[in-house]
Design a protein that fits this description.
The chain is an alpha+beta fold. It folds into two domains: 35 residues; 100 residues, Glutaredoxin (3-Layer(aba) Sandwich), CATH 3.40.30. It contains five helices and four strands, in the order ααβαβαββα. The radius of gyration is 21 Å and the shape is elongated. The termini are far apart. About 14% of the residues have low confidence.
Length: 144
């Protein structure tokens, strides 16, 4: 009887240790295991194709489940069409690309980051950003 109890206790301890390892590994992969807010080298962005097109870029980072993110989706879709050929509007869903949160130093979602044509970060906004505010920021950057 005592042997059976010991086996059960050891089994439970092993399960707890394995669970802890899995949770810790998941936090490290999603950026939850580090307090570092490094944005990247020189706060430059490196979206595919951006350097060859030399266009300003708006990167919106959020999750399709948060209410402000859901409100921004149709706005960003319209802006992609409206600014086609003049600026790039990139939406990154952190549910599917969690490493991007660490890469861009995301603390709150949604976050919008504006990059100039050279890839330098020029402005960052946290939370919902309405269409007119985005248009005004693009205008300040010389994008009409």
């Amino acid at each position: 009887m005592k042997l059976k109890q010991n086996v059960v206790v050891v089994g439970i301890l092993i399960a707890i240790v394995i669970g802890f390892i899995l949770i810790k590994g998941s936090a490290d992969r999603t950026g939850g295991g580090s307090s570092s807010n490094v944005i990247g080298e020189d706060s430059r962005m490196d979206l595919e194709g951006q350097q060859t097109k030399k266009l300003p870029v708006l990167v919106d980072l959020g999750k399709g489940t948060c209410i402000p993110c859901k409100k921004m989706k149709p706005i960003l879709d319209e802006l992609k069409t409206e600014y086609h050929g003049r600026a790039i509007v990139k939406v990154i869903d952190l549910r599917y690309e969690p490493r991007e949160a660490r890469k861009y130093g995301i603390r709150l979602i949604p976050t919008q980051i504006f990059f100039d044509a050279e890839g330098n970060e020029v402005y960052r906004h946290e939370g919902f950003m309405d269409k007119q505010s985005i248009r005004m920021k693009f205008a300040e950057m010389g994008v009409y």
